[in-house]
Amino acid sequence: MKTFTHSLLLSAAVLLSPLALAQASNDAETLAKGEYLAIASDCTACHSQEHAAKPFTGGKAISSPVGTIFATNITPSKAFGIGNYTEEQFANALRKGIAADGSHLYPAMPYTAYAKLTDEDIHALYSYFMNAVKPVDQPVPETELPFPMNLRFSMAFWNALFLDDTVHQDDPEQSESWNRGRYLVEGPTHCATCHTPRGLLMQEQGDQFLAGAQVGPWYAPNITSDKVSGIGSWSKAEVVQYLKTGHVEGKAQAAGSMAEAISYSFQHLSDGDLNAIADYLATVPAVNTASDNRFNQGEPGNKLAAFRGKDFHEDTSAPGARLYSGSCASCHGYNAQGTEDGYYPSLFHNSVTGEANTSNLIATILYGVDRETEAGGHVFMPPFGDQPNALNNLDNQQVAQLSNYILDMHGLKGTQVTPEQVAEIRAGGAQSPLIQYARVGMGVGVVVVLFAIGLLWHRKRKK
Amino acid sequence: MSTSSNSGASNAEVVIVGTGVVAAVVAEQLLDAGLSVLMLEAGPRVSRAEIVENYRNLPLGNKGNAIASYPSKPWAPHPEPKSGRPGDDYLQVSGPNGIGYLQSYVRYAGGSTWHWAGTCWRLTPEDMRLNSLYGVGRDWPFPYEELEPYYVMAEYKLGICGPSDAAEQWPQGVKRSKPYPMPELPFSPGEEKFTKVMREKLGLRNVHVAQARNSGMPYDSRPACCGNNNCVPVCPVGAKYDAATSLGRLEAKGATILHNAVVYKVETNANNEIAAVNYLDPNKDSHRITGKTFVLACNGIETPKLLLMSADERNPNGLANSSDQVGRNMMDHPQLAYKIKLKEPYWTGLGPVVNSGIMETSQGDYRSRHAAAYFRFNNFAQNRFVTFDTLKQGLIGRELDEQLRHNTATSGMIVAAHEVLPDPENRLTLSDKKDWLGLPKPAVHFDVGEYTRRSAREFSEPMIQRIADAMGVEEAPTSPGFRPSKHIMGGTIMGKDSSNAVVDDVCRAYDHANLFLPGGGAMPSTATGNSTITMVALAFRASEAIIRQMKTGA
ipTM of the assembly? Predict the structure, then answer.
């Protein structure tokens, strides 16, 4: 009788919701698939403070333009993690940004991308997290964003406006590889989360898909198929090499959160998947955002004659060149030519110095580079900011002088960096005006905001 | 950087004089144990970029001078012979081998590891028992087995790379409790050839130097060595450990670091414990810093000098000096260096400046008769040394380039580094001459002694000639005589007996329960290998004793 009732209830539940009582699988194949997807989705980048030592235990502070968000513990700990999650709750968190307790996640969690994940893949991920990840009972700090961003329910409106929660569907007109690539790019690897510019309300701007965006102190550049401002000039093999090693000599190298993505995620994907990503990226609609190609700017050279032989503290007409000599030349070469093996990149024909947006040049100087791949080794450039291990502590004025020297000699001539820009990057990047707008909006014109939202809603429905 | 030094700080639980490697290691251990730490540096605190650019601005003829990139400040002179600078005749040397004790060290925040080569040979068990085994010198008050764990700590703290093959490790045949944290650096072409020639012609084993340098990987949040061959006078990228790389981390952990703060008097209280240190700033104003425990780690010359300068009613011969051994037993590794002109190209210069050595020659029963020596073929790039002579040949254009290449490839230097015995007559005293602040300059009388002279005569010079012959030289090499290795040891010597030693086996002064003197000054024997790793091992050992003493009173 008990069994019968149980079965009845179970059937009812299954009928009501196909995922509601699904059990996590424990077979090796599903777990391996789930692990691969967790790597592809780079969960560890945000959800681990110590990637190797304590994976998925959360607590890492993610700086966002509206404040610091603490990543949660996603180990199957029942007290502090997701140990009590059903598969449906897990799916809702990933695809809808709704936690088990019904509260809304902030879109720092890329659920707008994970919404593309198929049921099968959600199941594999759930099985992996429940059965293969070690539960760690470790609490994480509460995220406390400033008013009004602390009103999590407001995310419901945001989701209604901006969350496209349709699961990925293959396009029968396209190849299997292209479809796989599109799934990976739009779904698990969530490229758009960083590379697509966001609007006033932090929503991704669909017509600017992968056209380049600021991510904290770094700039995630245009990776559309545009031949001038995107990566349309790259061969497929170069895209694959970049994703495997984070470096294509004479073109670009990964730092900041892209270095993490390469180190923790992309280098571990199969060649088939990396080629699929390259296949799909080649067809992403070209968006032209610059008139200059960032990969072929600049040339070798130096201004040693301006200061060599003068006392270090004596004035020089080329202060940036002296900073370059003292802090950079020992690795990148006196002419910024880099090394023959490419381990130390040249600073000309380099996307960091050829890009009109100077964030990556400033951020590389201030924060350095830390990237480790099997194929490319451990690449480590020390920082030159305020860190205890900074090789030299350069102030905002010095970073600006150094940047301007590098841009003029080796990069996009005519580009200027100001000490104020350096200060902003040093502080972690521009803060969103959203908080101010929202507060002002609430203070002087709630009606206007509601009207605007209503209007956007209306438009969205019509689409 | 500012020249003012007083942050308003006036006390800490532990006051450390010095900011070099020993001071930095002690400071970090104490900070990690939750103690408050204040460090005083006599000299300035400058950026690495400034030193790098100072070096690049030097005229070619002065680039071989390890100190020229570190101009001393008037208030903190360090030896700068024939420079016309404040340190010109700062260190007064005398005796049969006075010139052999004209040391190089810098009074800059970060200390002399700024310009060390990074070489880290451990002592052998025998090196610590010279008296028992060979009837010469002094024994250490504890055996190698007790030092070994501290060597490991030093290797992991400084990031010392070394061979994983036990046959290539030094000391040979002695168990290591942990592998090196990084693999050895590869040989340069010249070292490859030298190693082969030594093995095949002389049956000698040239092995990889264990060195405090990041080998093929970042370590300690510092980058990998990229082979600038610029280790002396400064690593431009921080791949070599120097104490300056750790100062920011110490501050992040809560240390206060005062620079341009010249400690001139250590003060005792009625119990003859240390009560305070007093320092002068560049305006010649005096300041007083109090604490519970004091550590003097300001180099093997400055530490005994400061103890002697601090003489008071209770300690008329200077602090810690009831044994009359402070400033005595001054030691180094007197070296004979030979420029050689090779018949065939060897090509040194790829990688660090010192990257291999023949250590096995430094052990044996012969030590009852004469000093040990180890031999090495330096890996300095030779172009800067050969340029002037090549220019004098009057060549131009392509011929000049080719001759320069040829001379660079066929020039080199082989070195014999010797041990010396502790001799009370090799003595540091306070000179009548005063420095800019009016403080006495240090004076050292030095004689390498018959034990070491006999080694040169009977052992090392003949060996150098055999090595040169095996390598194939144009003419028999000569040396200008004993020169310093800049490994200052002995002035605050360690021993079991307080009547003839300054510190006990944890580097605590016998005369003052709260005064520690870790570092090279404590070493009772020198052996032949560079002293820093042993100084750091002693720093770890002393740190444990300080923490134990402060937390439990034991």
Answer: 0.95
